[in-house]
Amino acid sequence: MMMYPSFVIAEWLVPAEWKGAKRLLILAAVGGLVMTSWDVVMDPLMVRGQHWVWEVDGAFFGVPLQNYWGWWLTVFTTFTLYLLTTRNQPANKSAGYDRLAWAAFVITAYGNTINALTTGLSGPALAGFFALTPWIVLSWFRMSGYGLVDPAVRQIE
Predict the structure, then answer these.
(1) Which of 21, 31, 54, 62 could cross-link to 10 by cystine, CB 3.0-4.6 Å?
(2) What span, in angstroms and rounded, lies between the C-alpha atoms of 78 and 3?
(3) How many other CB atoms are there within 10 angstroms of residue 33's CB atom?
(4) 65-99 confidence digits (pLDDT tens)
(5) DSSP 32-44
(6) Residue 130 domain boundaries
(7) CA-based angle 42:45:49, to the nearest 5?
(8) How far apart are CA 22 and CA 41, in angstroms?
(9) Domain tally, the chain
(10) pLDDT of residue 156
């Protein structure tokens, strides 16, 4: 559910001028980071609600740290495969739809952050806020066209 919004945010953050394998790998890596930043607040909530149970008590509010590495690697691999299989297709993007995906990410991310805060998970809420906010703010600036990117230049390679 959060992979598409994470991908859209990454697309706006990685310069369209970068081409080929460089852009593909950086786009997949940034997309993985965006997605994993959402997981920083989500996983402790799931542990608190007993939706997820780990065999060991993890170092980050009950979540093992390798979980975050696993999420990044999974998303990186998925985005890389997607980009490789679609690289020869023409880009047909709309900033309007991108803004909807961005809004879905923001609402879900900050909604989970508020949920964590109100259920006594102030540590994950704070960590989540600082993990999520840079991606949200930077991509908003890029999509809003504050001199950071020309939307007409933006395309998927």
Answers:
(1) 31
(2) 9
(3) 19
(4) 999 999 999 999 999 999 999 887 766 666 678 88
(5) HHHHHHHHHHHHH
(6) 3-144
(7) 140
(8) 30
(9) 1
(10) 41
